[in-house]
Specification:
Largest sheet: 6 strands, parallel
Number of strands: 6
Length: 247
Amino acid sequence: MSDENSVRLFCFPFEGVSAGVYLPWTRITGGSLVITPVELPGRGHHPRARPCRDLEALLAEIMPYVARMCDRPFALYGHGFGALLAYETAARLEWEHDAVAERLYVSGTGIPHRTAPERAVGHLPDAAMTGRLRDRGRMPPLARDPRRAARTLGALRADLTVMEAYRRDPRHILHCPVTAMGGVRDRGLSGAELSGWRRCTRRALRVEMFPGDYYFPITAQQELLETFGRDLIRPAAARRLLSVAGY
């Protein structure tokens, strides 16, 4: 049921992990911010599905769910691979459903683009792929556990394949503001790269840095949730007051 007193925040997982990584957020936030993890094939509640290695096929899997859940004001958040998915989903919601997000949050990555061949790792054997990711500080926490690595490598490789082949259509410019975020100790991402997201919106871009490395959404979750609440809940409450007052 729709609730005009709340904002839904769709959360897209980073490469190789389940959207369950965001479940702790659902226990921290109140009813005004509805955390809605978007699960991908081959993980979480869909472990028997095959992870998608094609962006369009992946979006075809998740778009019906997201569109159905746009029953109230909404925003989107994605980290790493999830940032690419959040951006593409926001764009398709505008084009296909005339639904514009309150805000798009992207973190851990600059504006998505096709990876240079010498930087690509998704095609490498497991040991070489994980070694390169480890060197870059991009090895998912679950994949570091030998007991879980075998189950996560397939999803990780699929996500990397999509990321590394991605070509952004420069005509796809959003009508919502964007916040680009990074970890202050992430050695693989600069503020200038985060600023590149300006090319993806007709509205304002804000760049914010958080304590931690690439995986700061796990270690700085309180700071992130405070940012979401400040941006989404207070403006929504203000709009409702103006509406009641007849403005």
